[in-house]
Amino acid sequence: MAQHVVGLALGGIGGFNAHDAGVLKAAYDVGVKPDVISCTSGAIFWTYQFLTDPEGIPAEVQRQADAVRGVNALSVAAFGYPKIFAPATRQYWARWMTPWNPFSVKEYLDRLLPAQVYEPTRTTADFAAMADAFVATDIPVLFNAYAIAQGRELLFSNPAGLEFLGVKPNDQRAHYALGSELVTQYRPIDAKAVETALWLVLYGFEHTYQGEVTIDGAYRRQVILSELTNCERIYVVKPQPTAWAGAAPANYFDVQDFNTEMWFNSSYTSERSALHHSDRERKEGDYTPVEEITMDRPLGFFNYFVERMKTYTDGYDKAKEIFERDRRLMTPLARV
User: Can you give the residue range of the structural domain that contains 159?
Assistant: First the structure.
């Protein structure tokens, strides 16, 4: 292990996962390797790309950006995002064909405006390839999902991650403040784990993982930080800014953007509190340095639906400057 244990906490968020991709490519180009990576939602895919084909990251961002040919979110809503999701048209009409038993206003609304808007189009082979790469790497990798009925977070870890955390599969830990009211359960990574960790709420709630309805863990905890308390330095890749710089929201879409950013920032604040709680158990003044690599402007509602090269470039430029400055603190990346 490096002299300084460095953690990289990647927060996934809509069309801003290109920001995570830029940070990871910057680490590769500077020649440094995180000692542990936590990631959520779309950042899971970019972590996989970093582990398997880091030089191909810019081309993959460009491919995803070109896949929607520069069109706006309305086109994505109508036709989906190639190789990621498609409109759940078949499922929509199948609900109308199901006999009413009995008729009710709720049942009518369930059919007219169902929870499932899209269906994922990634394949079982895609999930298996990601899982295999995570299991094979010596870098601890952590990502999450959320079991909605039990209010329990599932924290998936590869073998190196379980060792880093000092836990075994199915171990549980209570929240540092709420105790057993909020429990995290640790699970090994496999293809099903990757699938459930990428299950967006707009895919509906009929999907289960080991008998439980589970969704993408970013809805519960966008940045996984409290598990990184053993790190001596943590870089947090949080696409949304902490403050709302610029004009105040003036229309419906601005408000939705504002709500989303505040929602993710609230869970992040809880994570920072957990980190400081752990720090208080150390000697006085021995606090874990945390550096945020983030955006400096409101994201914009319609940008959540498409990846953009500018988002990638912004993340890359900021991270490259930081990693070059801190190169001596980080583990050199062994190139094949």
Answer: 6-84+121-332
